[in-house]
Structures are given as structure tokens and as C-alpha cells.
Specification:
It is a single chain. The protein contains 2 helices and 5 strands. By secondary structure, it is an alpha+beta fold. It has one domain: 3-Layer(aba) Sandwich (Trna Endonuclease, Chain: A, domain 1), CATH 3.40.1350.10. It has a 5-stranded mixed β-sheet. The longest helix is centred in the N-terminal third of the chain and has 19 residues. It is globular, with a radius of gyration of 14 Å.
């Protein structure tokens, strides 16, 4: 497996644990529709949350959350619409970003951006 894939999976695992510790209920991971993938779908109290996880090993070229393009946001929104149709969803939703910086010493820095876009 390529380093960036391993790093991405590490970030998704850490983000899931982080969310569970905050009281979120993980409903799905790596949910795919067409050309889009939603990293984590979770429930935060009465809100369905679609979460994009970005992981980097440093901020030398920018912070992880800066690497989500408008095109990516639109793809995630399309996939979220399909998820809601399939699950007959009818309550509040939001889109979050979790940025993970995997430090060389084996620790990580996690930032959670709630309601990151619409």
C-alpha cells in the first residue's frame, strides 16, 4: 500500500475514535456513490453529519483542511443526497472536516471543523 493511502487510513481511524469520544455515533465509513466517497457518516445528537477527513504528515505545504476543493465538496454533497434518499432521512444535516496531522513522534494533532461548508 502506498504511504499516502496508509496515512489516509490512519487519519480516518483516529478521526473515528475522536468522534466517538465526543459522543458521535458512527453510521458508515467510506460510503461510495458514483465518483464520490464520504469518509465518515455519523450522528451527532439529532444531526446527520457527513465528514471529510484530511490527513497530512506536516503542514509544510499547507494545513490538511486547505486541500478540499469545491469540486470535492460538490461530490460529497451529491453522495450525501443519495445517502439521504436511500435511508429516507428527514432531519438536520451538516458537513464537517476533520484535519489530522500525523507527527513524526507517533502522535497526532486533530482539528474538527463543524459545519465547514454548505
Amino acid at each position: 500500500m502506498h504511504h499516502h493511502l496508509t496515512l489516509g487510513k490512519f487519519g480516518e481511524e483516529r478521526a473515528s475514535v475522536f468522534l466517538i469520544d465526543k459522543g458521535f455515533i458512527i453510521l458508515d465509513r467510506n460510503w461510495r456513490f458514483s465518483h464520490a466517497e464520504i469518509d465518515i457518516i455519523a450522528k451527532d445528537r439529532n444531526t446527520l453529519v457527513f465528514i471529510e477527513v484530511k490527513t497530512r504528515s506536516s503542514v509544510e505545504f499547507g494545513r490538511p483542511e486547505e486541500f478540499i476543493s469545491n469540486k470535492k465538496m460538490l461530490l460529497i454533497q451529491d453522495a450525501a443526497n443519495e445517502y439521504m434518499k436511500k435511508n429516507q432521512h428527514d432531519w438536520a444535516i451538516r458537513f464537517d472536516i476533520i484535519a489530522v496531522i500525523a507527527k513524526p513522534d507517533g502522535t497526532e494533532l486533530i482539528s474538527h471543523f463543524e459545519d465547514a461548508w454548505w
